[in-house]
Amino acid sequence: MADAGGGSDKRVWCSVPEKFQLHGAMLALQFGYAGFHVVSRFALNMGISKLVFPVYRNIIALLLLLPFAYFLEKKDRPAITLNFLVQFFFLALIGITANQGFYLLGLDNTSPTFASAIQNSVPAITFLMAALLRIEQVRLNRKDGVAKVVGTIFCVAGASVITLYKGPAIYSPTPPLQMMMMSSASSSFIIIAAIFERDSQAWIFHNGGEVFSILYAGVVASGIAFAVQIWCIDRGGPVFVAVYQPVQTLVVAIMASVALGEEFYLGGIIGAVLIIVGLYLVLWGKSEERKFAQASLRVPIQSTPSDNVHSNNRKSQTKTSLTQPLIPPSTENV
């Protein structure tokens, strides 16, 4: 009976269109990261070491992901070469060690809302890099291209309003009833922490809040979030993932008001509206881009018999130029 129920749940999930799976996964991801910002602020308020924090976080994430990576992908993963090792090293150094280290340093001197809002430069930078590297096609002479550009600008503008403009307070919460925290870990941080963090007390858990922080950071913010994010990038592309970043700022602003006692201002409402409009424009633009590509593939092309002969000879060697760089043609992602 249990197997039948499990199979039924699996069939129901598989029957959901992939584009809805992607949107649902990205929304859940933003809530997970938003909680991470708030929990991290609690942890820093309680005096947790900014070096020990990411060490425990990444150790837990490693222990969580390692079994899945080994058993589920051992037949698919490429051979480990020097080139891969170099890429992984710089990815870990910049994307994990430097990213998490500077994030905690900035969060310690600002607020969760500001830390989340400043990350909303990611969609604009990702969109620009993807366009320059020809991963994302931008056609300003078409409505889908204009929508993606304008939508990205709206998302960044909305996050900027939340950060820079307060306005009158809409909601003034009471102080939070309890504290939450988070911590994490990475091999690079182990070395750095071992050198600079000599206080043995900094490595000891002092209360249940610290344990919760470490588990949340390692399991949710690093383990589950990284896996979901990689899947969404693979199926929807980097711009699709990056454009959801501003949603995180809105969620953090609300969570920080409830959990940390931060006031929620009119600027947050205005910024939220801009973010929602921008997100809709980008997603609508990507949907229109897919429709344009599918319509172009269905257009019959007039050709002469000699052209058909040459075309058949090259058919197995030449790929169509009408490719969607962020969306696999066989799937309906956004």
From TrEMBL:
Residues 303-334 are annotated as: Disordered. Keywords: Membrane, Transmembrane, Transmembrane helix. Pfam families: EamA (PF00892). SUPFAM superfamilies: Multidrug resistance efflux transporter EmrE. The keyword Membrane applies. Residues 26-163, 175-283 form the EamA domain. It is found in: Membrane. GO terms for molecular function: transmembrane transporter activity. Coiled coil: none annotated. The chain crosses the membrane at residues 51-72, 84-102, 114-133, 145-165, 177-196, 208-231, 264-283. Residues 318-334 have a biased composition (Polar residues). GO terms for cellular component: membrane. InterPro entries: EamA_dom, EmrE-like, WAT1-related. It is a multi-pass membrane protein. Belongs to the drug/metabolite transporter (DMT) superfamily. Plant drug/metabolite exporter (P-DME) (TC 2.A.7.4) family. This is WAT1-related protein. It comes from Rubus argutus.
